[in-house]
Amino acid sequence: MGFITIIDSQKGDYQNLAIAYMLARDIAVNARKPDIDLDMLSLLVNRMIKDIGEIQKIKSLVESNIKTNNEILLQLEKGMLLMEFNSRYLAKFLIDGTLTKKDLLDFYMGDEIREKYKLIEKEITT
């Protein structure tokens, strides 16, 4: 290991050299070979690897849960749209006492619901 310092000898500025010397001296004085118990190190590393695996599993479960909840929300929204749609035709039937052939065709086709459902599906899935 070594240090490169920039000094200005014409101005007599040796401050960078002094800093590099102090750092090198501190490193040399405090340098010692670490006492490492390989069995203990192996135990710690294995525990950390296990914990990382647990966190990755939690992340996977959360992502799966988000996807499932979005699907549930989508089905709820679809059910709400169908109930509103059916409610309008039932109310019309109760008021008029009958439904026209056009009403029955519109009810059967459900195009209005399909368009709204596509918008909700796009909103939830993005």
Explain what this protein looks like in three dimensions.
The longest helix has 59 residues, at 38-96. The protein is built from 4 helices and no strands. The mean pLDDT is 89. With 126 residues, the protein is mostly helical.
Which structural class do the helices and strands define? mainly alpha
Helical stretch tally: 4
Write the H/E string, N to C.
HHHH
* Oligomeric state: single chain
Poorly predicted ranges: none
Q: What's the pLDDT, averaged over the residues?
A: 89
Draw up the topology in text:
Blueprint lengths: L14 H16 L7 H59 L4 H9 L1 H15 L1
What does this entry show, briefly?
This protein has 126 residues and is an all-alpha fold. Helices cover 79% and strands 0% of the residues. Helix 2 runs antiparallel to helix 4.
Keywords:
elongated; 126 residues; 0% strand; 79% helix; mainly alpha
